[in-house]
Amino acid sequence: MITKRIIILITISIWFLMYTTCLPFFIKTKNASNSFKYQSLILVYYLLNRNFETNIFFKGNKLETIPGKVNLIMLNHISTIDWLIFYCFMAKKYKIDQVHQILKDDLLWYPCIGELCHANNDIFIKRNWKEDENIIDKSLSKINSGFIIIFPEGTRFTKKKFESSLKFAKENNFVELENLLLPKSKGTWKIINTLKRDNKLGNLYDVTCLATKYRNTEMFLKDIFCEGTGDIFLEIRQIIVPSPYVLDDKTNFKLWLHNLWKQKDLLIKNFDKAGYDKLDSPYETDLVFHVVLVLMIVFIVKKLGYKYLLANLGLTYIKLLLLKLFC
User: CA torsion, points 155, 54, 46, 150, in degrees to nearest 10?
Assistant: First the structure.
């Protein structure tokens, strides 16, 4: 089973690499990138469900798009792939394409992923607040609708990070959490205030993500490969936009966010499976797009050969470099 899962990971990597190297450079438009991203999520969900025992359950408020507004989704960060699972949920449940996220700057250089995320106007941060504040302002000016996903904790859950977070909370008289890391507030505060200032702030959603097999412990890739993910539960709550008293003061906002995370912590502590709906399993018909694309790629490679692949890969990274330097 572990060997099979490793083969699947390699298959997915090759699939993304094919996009970077095989699709003609000049047709990689934003719409093409979004279409490929959506179809890839369906493929990933298919493989997770069939081979990693990933069943997604959900309940709570419906995620709604608002014309001319940007909704913010705040999640707790339990593993390396929780963002991917949530993306799969949104793709399968809502077929939403205008979904942006906060990413580490070095992900820009990953084959295919960097290109897709840049075309999607995802926000690449350096984890240096002086630089990131300007990056967030610049990035938000390009986003006028859809959703932004943010992980206020800033890093995924591990036992070591949890102990450090708990110690920090005790030393600073903050809320003490039993199942989550203490959230950081600067980025979330900045995004909400900037969107509100520009009259683009839509709904705020709080999503609590729980993998029952890994509650209050690490969920690394090695664990996922050995044990699978098991059932994933998503509880979605639409929350009220904080008052000006909260938004205008960073300290008040931090306390507001800590209180929100305390509610999430209690939800995980007292978790009950009742009331959740199961997300539809993916079907073989969902893979038609991928079969067609593979046939196209085989034809391109047969006609143009490896020199074309290398040239296309080189052009892709030249484009990313120019975008990073001048945009």
Answer: -20
Is the per-residue pLDDT at 2 higher than 90? no
Question: DSSP letter at 63?
Answer: P
Give me the domains of the chain, ranges plus CATH numbers. Answer: 53-286 (3.40.1130)
DSSP 119-157: HTT-EEE-S-HHHHHHHHHHHHTT--SEEEEE-TT-S--
Give me the residue label for tokens 């990597």. 13
Task: Please state, in angstroms and as integers, the Cα–Cα distance from residue 123 to each residue in 67, 82, 115, 160, following that order.
Answer: 21, 18, 13, 28
Check if the beta carbon of residue 69 is closer than 8 Å to that of residue 201.
Answer: yes
Q: Is the pTM of this model over 0.85?
A: yes
CA distance 303 to 190: 50
pLDDT, tens digit, for every residue of 190-229? 999 999 999 999 999 999 999 999 988 889 888 888 888 9
Q: What six digits make up the tokens of 201?
A: 């702030």
Give me the sign of the Cα torsion angle 140, 142, 146, 152.
Answer: negative
**DSSP string computed for 269-325:** HT---TTPEEPPPP-GGGGHHHHHHHHHHHHHHHHHHHHHHHHHHHHHHHHHHHHHH
Please, which residues bridge with residue 99 across strands? Answer: 147
Q: Write down the residue that tokens 């080189």 correspond to.
A: 314
Cβ atoms 179, 263 nearer than 8 A: no
